[in-house]
Fold these 2 entries.
Entry 1:
Amino acid sequence: MIICVYHDVTIMMLCIAYEVTVMIICVYHDMTIMMLCIAYEVTVMIICVYHEVTIMMLCVANEVTIMLLCVANEVIIMMLCIAYEVTIMMLCRWNEVMRKMELWVEIDELNYQGEWSAVEVQPKLDIPSAGQFQLQQVSTGEVNPH
């Protein structure tokens, strides 16, 4: 009877120790899973926040870059327009000056019929305002001033 009691007590103590061990393992397991889940959620949250901050910073940088490019483009266009207007103004002014500098020269010679006629001019293609007068050879060198 002592053996049976001892045996029953031992079994009972082993069962209690087993249940306590299982309970401790389950609690430890649940705590480990819970801590891993919290760590995972925190990591995911940090990654999401980092990702959103990165995207926001890239968007801001992109907008600033686009704004700077637009400003630079407008400045270049404005400078080109000013340069174009100055060029047109200078060309118009040069056309006015050129109109005032026109000069006509005519040389007359006595032809075979005894009449005064204009000498033929051979223009130079490389210089638009130059040319050569082609005089005919005559026996007498009369010059008639006009």
Entry 2:
Amino acid sequence: MQSRLKRATPYDAASGVAAGLVGTTAMTAAMDGLERLLPPGEHEPIEPRQITDVLLCRGGLADSLTDEQKAALALASHFGYGATMGAMYGMFGRRLPLPSAARGAAFGLAVWAASYVGWLPALGILPPPPRRPAGRNGLLIATHLVWGAVTALVADSAQRQGSSLRPTQRRSVMPRRGGSGAAGVVGENGSSSGCPNGVTPWSMAR
């Protein structure tokens, strides 16, 4: 029995990267809006900036960059991570048996857990969620849900459009026997049809 799961293609990864960038844009806007709703004691630099500052300090580069350069580096890493996770969604996340928005939200929640419950605390870059303010945890979860839903909607739409442009049946060009030698279009069932004047076989197969 042939598996229903399709092998991931470069197009899946590329469309995921583009979708991840769109999702990160929406996520960043949501971060900015929700940050203003937090209590005064929970206002902090956004997490990508915190992560960047810690890594620069550990690398001994904190004093060699201006604040503007650090902000630009944090933004670039933020979008780079979003694009990378978008590629992961394009290749693997789309297999979850859920509607696009729900599937993306679930994937976004998984990204949050892997990052803020997993490798960031494990490397000592950020404290685990129980040691952080509840408002910031809520902000991060909500914005990852936004990222995931937007990324999935964009990636799945691109995937559908890409699939509609691919031919559904393989066709080959073979010479017709006994005729004038004009090319015919031969399908998988062996039937053939001549090409109208001025129409090439590959244009008919589209």
